[in-house]
């Protein structure tokens, strides 16, 4: 049997000397060991580098494994355990119908971990600070809605999103009490209540959060009058004011705390020049250059520079927003929005353009070790005066070999129009000899399929982006699955392809500011790779997984495959259509309670038999 050779004496002495030197510098210099050893890495041999240095992503993956194991250890396997976990986490009894919800979930093989439903309580908790009659009135007055009476769901709207939601709710209508659901038909969310008002609502909600004695618990919901008839208990709700301010940052930031950078930083008004990427704003959610807190990375309140780096903040396609706390249901939202999340219609429709089911099972070993992205130039209303601030334009430019080559050769004298080259902290091998453009061109295939340009009185209307971009033919998702790496970039709101990516055998690399129903079920670096919305970590992520053969940098194909397969396996367990039904049922039972005048004493206490009888 052959044994590995022991390191030579010289190598042992060299390692010892370097470790002593690094120890000295760590005591006298910056605390970040990576920042000290980083400049030495490109000149070290692979063997020596592996002895001295562990990549930051290695540690993030280990943390993710521990987080996921801890999360899944809290799985409830009985109704009693689920109810106990509910009271511990929510501070109330479960809602009426909780036993039927558990039975439905269990019959559909749902994994029941109480924190999987955290988003529901984040969304609904402020409404405990609003009178139930007002919530009911606001919902009944909303133009697009679903009405549930006597266990039958219906809608007078033929909008296709409404119909998809309606068809899903009809599969569980026999378990639902009476209610009205106001629905958002737009890509963009509708509600941004000022932070100060939400704080007041949350304070009132906390005061009403109590586990009442089982003997006084009410276990039946109040019935609603038929659609069109007045509710005698409803109060006259004030007329809702809708805002149409095109500069959405001015609206969105009111949902942030007064002390936050979003509220305190000067508002950007000029989007005609290259945007400023300020690294200091992302330190709160990054560790050594990579996303360490995915949830925090989707919160823009500490990231004031994103006001000029995301199309939604610059000029959305449409704006119709209120500062009133209305019970509006939608498919996605920003961290500050107060809309109530449902699984998005794209996920419920199971359309092939969103799922790519035909090619989702291609074996990893049969795929091209490359990146592919196709999409339209969405993100908002891009114009000659603002396109440089749109996220998809930035991402496509960062993967354009010609633009990268020009940026490398010009240096600071002629910076790129809408992105910046990666900082030295990533120690990219390709930057040692200005070969970033060549390397990226060899491993990525990124292009727009439609420039979606504003005409602004010109024809063909794309004169302002033609020098930088050219549209390519679309690539069906089933064909995209022939590539190992699938970046997912926000458009006008969230990306409807994400669930299809997770269900595939490719590796999703996700950059987003949008919250969705499933966020608490997924663990970044375990089920997908998170990316900062500035994309400054993009090249570092690629080098970690793909390596750089020309520069002698070895990739980690096995690690990429492990994450891709873990995401696929987990999606098949917790992101099925059945899981969406279970989520919606739980959400609507909670919503029905919060709109009931007796809500503070309503609940399910069937597991507390002795206490009820005493």
TrEMBL record:
Q: Please give the start and end residues of each transmembrane region.
A: none
- Domain (Glycosyl transferase CAP10): residue spans on this chain: 305-598
Read off the InterPro entries from this record.
CAP10, O-Glucosyltr/Glycosyltrsf_90
Q: Which domain of life is it from?
A: Eukaryota
Tell me any Pfam family this protein matches: Glyco_transf_90
What this protein is called in its record is: Glycosyltransferase family 90 protein
Q: What taxonomic ancestry is recorded?
A: Eukaryota, Fungi, Dikarya, Ascomycota, Pezizomycotina
């Amino acid at each position: 049997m052959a044994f590995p050779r022991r390191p030579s004496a010289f190598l042992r002495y060299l390692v010892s000397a370097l470790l002593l030197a690094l120890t000295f510098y760590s005591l006298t210099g910056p605390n970040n060991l990576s920042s000290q050893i980083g400049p030495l890495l490109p000149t070290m041999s692979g063997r020596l580098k592996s002895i001295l240095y562990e990549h930051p992503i290695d540690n993030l993956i280990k943390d993710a494994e521990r987080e996921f194991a801890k999360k899944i250890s809290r799985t409830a396997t009985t109704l009693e355990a689920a109810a106990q976990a509910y009271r511990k986490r929510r501070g109330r009894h479960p809602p009426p119908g909780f036993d039927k919800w558990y039975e439905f979930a269990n019959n559909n093989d749902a994994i029941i971990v109480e924190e999987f439903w955290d988003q529901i309580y984040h969304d609904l908790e402020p409404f405990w600070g609003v009178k139930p009659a007002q919530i009911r009135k606001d919902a009944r007055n909303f133009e697009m809605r679903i009405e549930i009476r006597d266990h039958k769901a219906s809608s007078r709207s033929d909008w296709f999103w409404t119909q998809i939601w309606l068809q899903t709710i009809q599969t569980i209508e026999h378990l639902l009490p009476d209610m009205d659901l106001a629905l958002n038909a737009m890509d963009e969310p509708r509600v941004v209540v000022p932070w100060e008002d939400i704080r007041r609502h949350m304070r009132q909600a906390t005061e009403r959060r109590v586990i009442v004695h089982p003997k006084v618990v009410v276990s039946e919901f109040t019935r609603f009058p038929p659609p069109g008839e007045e509710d005698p208990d409803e109060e006259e709700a004030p007329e809702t004011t809708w805002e149409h301010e095109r500069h959405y940052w001015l609206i969105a930031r009111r949902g942030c705390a007064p002390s936050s950078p979003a509220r305190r930083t000067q508002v950007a008004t000029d989007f005609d020049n290259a945007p400023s990427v300020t690294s200091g704003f992302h330190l709160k959610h990054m560790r050594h250059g990579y996303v360490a807190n995915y949830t925090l990375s989707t919160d823009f309140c500490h990231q004031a520079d994103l006001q000029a780096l995301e199309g939604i903040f610059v000029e959305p396609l449409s704006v119709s927003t209120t500062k009133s706390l209305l019970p509006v249901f939608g498919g996605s939202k920003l961290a500050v929005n107060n809309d109530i999340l449902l699984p998005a219609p794209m996920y419920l429709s199971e359309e092939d353009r969103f799922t790519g089911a035909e090619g989702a099972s291609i074996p990893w070993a049969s795929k091209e070790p490359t990146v592919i992205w196709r999409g339209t130039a969405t993100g908002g209303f891009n114009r000659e005066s603002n396109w440089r601030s749109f996220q998809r334009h930035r991402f496509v430019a960062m993967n354009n070999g010609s633009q990268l080559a020009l940026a490398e050769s010009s240096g600071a004298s002629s910076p790129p129009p809408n992105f910046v080259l990666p900082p030295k902290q990533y120690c990219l091998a390709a930057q040692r000899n200005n070969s970033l453009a060549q390397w990226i061109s060899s491993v990525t295939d990124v292009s727009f399929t439609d420039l979606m340009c504003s005409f602004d009185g010109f024809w063909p209307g794309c004169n302002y982006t033609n020098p930088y971009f050219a549209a390519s033919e679309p690539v069906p998702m089933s064909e995209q699955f022939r590539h190992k790496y699938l970046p997912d970039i926000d458009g006008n709101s969230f990306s409807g392809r994400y669930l299809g990516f997770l269900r595939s055998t490719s590796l999703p690399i996700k950059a987003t500011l949008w919250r969705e129903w499933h966020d608490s079920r997924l663990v970044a670096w375990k089920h997908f790779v998170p990316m900062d919305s500035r994309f400054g970590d993009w090249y570092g992520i690629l080098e970690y997984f793909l390596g750089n053969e020309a520069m002698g940098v070895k990739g980690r194909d096995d690690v990429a495959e492990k994450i891709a397969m873990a995401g696929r396996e987990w999606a098949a367990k917790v992101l099925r259509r059945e899981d969406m039904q279970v989520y919606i049922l739980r959400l609507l039972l909670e919503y029905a309670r919060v709109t009931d005048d007796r809500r503070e004493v309503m609940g399910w206490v069937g597991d507390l038999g002795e206490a009820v009888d005493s």
